[in-house]
Amino acid sequence: MLVCLLFAEEGINHECKLCNQMFDSPAKLLCHLIEHSFEGMGGTFKCPVCFTVFVQANKLQQHIFAVHGQEDKIYDCSQCPQKFFFQTELQVGSVIMSSLSACR
């Protein structure tokens, strides 16, 4: 799966396709995408699965990885079998998939 491979590579720059900010790991990019998901929501981050509220995006990210599994992902990609916890992840995945399709 191309999207999975793009998010899983360590040691390369990972660009946010929503704002073009660069990150040195996929985990930092994911935390940033969580922040995009909650822009304008008063600085709190709510788990999309169990609705637990956090004051830091990285704490929500840690919670999701520790408590929730693949089956809890709620956003389905229409172009591949990939699923996501956050709509911003889906948007970035869609941008990557459409740019890959345009290159063919």
TrEMBL record:
<dbReference type="Pfam" id="PF13894">
    <property type="entry name" value="zf-C2H2_4"/>
</dbReference>
<feature type="domain" description="C2H2-type">
    <location>
        <begin position="45"/>
        <end position="73"/>
    </location>
</feature>
<keyword id="KW-0863">Zinc-finger</keyword>
<keyword id="KW-0479">Metal-binding</keyword>
<dbReference type="InterPro" id="IPR036236">
    <property type="entry name" value="Znf_C2H2_sf"/>
</dbReference>
<dbReference type="GO" id="GO:0008270">
    <property type="term" value="F:zinc ion binding"/>
</dbReference>
<protein>
    <submittedName>
        <fullName>Zinc finger protein 423</fullName>
    </submittedName>
</protein>
<keyword id="KW-0862">Zinc</keyword>
<feature type="domain" description="C2H2-type">
    <location>
        <begin position="14"/>
        <end position="41"/>
    </location>
</feature>
<keyword id="KW-0677">Repeat</keyword>
<dbReference type="InterPro" id="IPR013087">
    <property type="entry name" value="Znf_C2H2_type"/>
</dbReference>
